[in-house]
Amino acid sequence: MNIKKNRYISNVKTVFLFIAVILIGGFCYGRLNLSGASAAGGEAAHDHRNCSHAEGEAAKHEEAKAPSEAYETFSLKDRSAIKTPESHDGHNHGAESAGREKEAAAHGPGDGHDHGSEAAHGALAPEIKIDGLVTEKAVAETVYETVSANATVRFHPDHYAKIVPFVPGRVKQIKARLGDRVKKGQELMVVESVEIFNAKVEYLKNLNRYEVALAKYENIVQMGELGSFTQKNVEEATGSLADAKSQYEKALVARETASKKYERVKKLVDSGVSSRSEQEQAENELRSASIEVESSKSKLENAQKSMSRVEKLSDAKISLKRETADIQTEFYEARQNYDISHKYLAVVGVECEPGGDCKIHELGTFSIYSPIDGIVIENNAVIGGSIDTQTAVMCVGDYDVTAIDIDIYEKDLSRVHNGQRVEIENIYGKTIAGRITYMSNILEQNTRTLKARAEIDENPSLLKIGEFVNCVILAAERKNAVTVPQAAIIEDGGRFLVYIKCGKSYDKVYVKQGHKFRDRVEIIEGVKPGDEVVTVGNYQLFNMSMSNKLELSCDSCK
Q1: Range 109-141+478-557 has CATH code 2.60.120.620
Q2: What's the DSSP call for residue 349?
Q3: Average pLDDT of 470-476?
């Protein structure tokens, strides 16, 4: 607005001055016509000198105004012809202008101005100022050749788990809800299963056989070390037999009681008085009592055999060698069967301490535990619902450890390898760093891309699982590269230029670009470290240059 206003005032002044010149010329011409022929020579000469003097004054005034108009309108077509007000001192301005032209012709690389040739420059007049121009210095720094690729945010494969049960069953209790943070080994749900019941029963049988065989084996070894049977051996065998008989009788009574209770509850259920859950509880109690009868019966039979064996060995003093071998074989078989049962339960997720009873009162249930630390991100289980061995009942993932799957195009494969740094920008504009840890050897035929994976080093929680992101891979390193902000670059007909601050002026310099890195551009030719390039207002300068309001000269930078 100031420039337009000043231009308008300047134009009005020029018009008034032009009118004044015409009036003075007319006045002189009129006086010449009114004079006689005899007086025409001298008076005309005098008036002509006065007229010439007036016209000279007007011309001088016009010349004095020229720099001011150049300042206001940026009309700097020919700076050598401009005369500033300070130059009206009677000197030979033509000679000064010629001297400046010679000095400009002598301007070269050795005079401290190295922004390129005259044809590649455009400079704003030294005294011209444009509000809002912002500059930033070019710097020498380390940059990287980059490879751009599409990527998808994923859970890290070591920190994501789909939990699928090993045996089918029915969900009895859920102990972790959607969104809960869980620890490795934390109980997630309780499941009832017939297969688990049978496996636990088999385990308890094998455990009992193993314990009996172990006792027999230790006893026979001890007797072999003693070398003979004593009365103490007979007394111990007699006492063990009595205890086994007592336990067996108690187990029979308990089973009979449980059997009667089950029959009574079953009738009540059939008549609609009791619930189905009470029948199931009575049925479990009957099964437990039956297992106890079998266990105590086995112990009684072993005690009877031990008593018989002790009596025979004591009476006949038979050698222990064959007896020891038979008991040892029995012990090894029992231990092997027990180990198999214990390992099976461990595989299906039932935790039993070696030699433990595996919660005999909960034979038909087992718990599912979290295999990792994380958050429950999916829950497909409902209380009372059936589960199978094909469907995940829960999914647990750790948002603090994420990775990205990168699609690398075939043309970029030669520049990408394991260990390279990557940078990605999330939906909030935050830059997040990572490193390539895996590259596939299989090229996708449809997309002609190769899969790679990068692990995120910091702030992985800023990413959203499943988010599509643009990944920048930092390839070859380039040290001491001269860079400027991308905002400083202007494209001009396939070429690129920047405006460099030079004193109170700005030079237009055509440059040769290198690689782009983040928000900066490498400059191979045209700019040196420390040059101040215009980042805001450069397009204003460029538009002025295109409208011939900037001249092609480097004089302002001398």
Answers
A1: no
A2: T
A3: 88
